[in-house]
Write a structure and sequence with these properties.
19% strand, single chain, five-stranded parallel beta sheet, 16 helices, 16 strands
Amino acid sequence: MKFVFQRNPPILSVRHQFHSQCSSISPQVICKSNLSKEEFVLKILDRRWTLRNPDTKVHQIKVSTLQTQQHCGLLGNVSFSNNSHPSLGENVREWHDDQPSFYIVRDDLLHPLVNGNKARKLDALLPLVEDHLGTDVVTCGGCQSAHAAAVAVSCAERGLKAHLLLRGEQPQVLTGYNLISMLYGTVTYVPRSIYAKREEMLSAHADSLAGSVVCLDDLLEASFIDHNSVKPNFPNLEDGLPSNSKKVVVINEGAGNAVALPGLIRLVQYLSQDHILGKDQPLKIVVDAGTGTTAVGLGIGALCLGLPWEVTAVMLADTIEGYRKQEEHLISELCRCYDVPTTLVESYTGWNIWNVVKGEVEACQQIAQETGVLVDPIYTLAAWELATQLSQEEPKGGAKVVMVHTGGTLGMFGLAQRYKSYFYITFLTIKLIISNRIS
């Protein structure tokens, strides 16, 4: 499994005039086991799931270079078109065209509110909470956290109660994921100084709910003893507790736990089927990275199945050291629970961006109008930009580029509230274009 964290592709030059951070260290993960690859994957995937099936849509985005200067913004002088019913299976390997293109995994369409990598991370997680008689879930995130909203909605759908600790102050007007979190869960706004110590904050709030408290790592380890058990397998949830006692499960920010990995491995298995992307065609998988859990899960899935896939992640929310520690934690937890020794050989470079900058809203607008695909200015736009670049660089007959859409598009509403000037300028631009066309 190889992760290459790209820095400063040409189409991102405007972004890097404002924010850039680079570091480099070396990642490859080698898992050794007496199990065959197929047996190892089957063991991981032998469980109940939140999603009834792992199916997702795959579209093909064609990239055209314009001869005129119609577009001269963040995406450069290119336009896009969307083939929503591309020929897959054997045609993925055999298809050749002089026009650059990339495939996009439309996980943003999985659920109206719980989609993208949030749905994949919760795929194995929530049934595990149910199997061990959990009643309440505590997690945290930013004010517009798609993760927090996904946990709230998914818990409500399954009869669990979600307690969400959101960083900062309550906005005057609730929008986007902040609004969804309030509607489906119990929200507490936490000062940034307290939020900075996330583990202590989550633990203290879980204790305040007056019930037995369990961490996901304990649940994960217990689940490997008996995947289908509905009885508690650890001391914090004893059979002698009253039936109305709360059993509180703590989920890290962004569901950055090893229990989130099976859902992503399940997605890799689905995509590698012969009638979808297949097992033989070299692929460059592009994904944006918040906690890095999605990239790790996709990479492990490709490694275990022996696929010629390279996972390329765009770092967007942490330092290179933070991603390295998260990667080591996730892999060691997964392999420890399955009794699989690991060898880590690290190697990657990366760039880091936190805020919306000039031109990104217009780029999202162009993509939406030309393809019908909605991306947000911070996360999925970065993955789209890199997929565009790689598709243009890849030689004819080479690896196919595949972007995994990680959802999060409701965050656009929160960004419109936070960055009024960008969206107001965009609105005026649209109004001016319409006026000129009418006249």
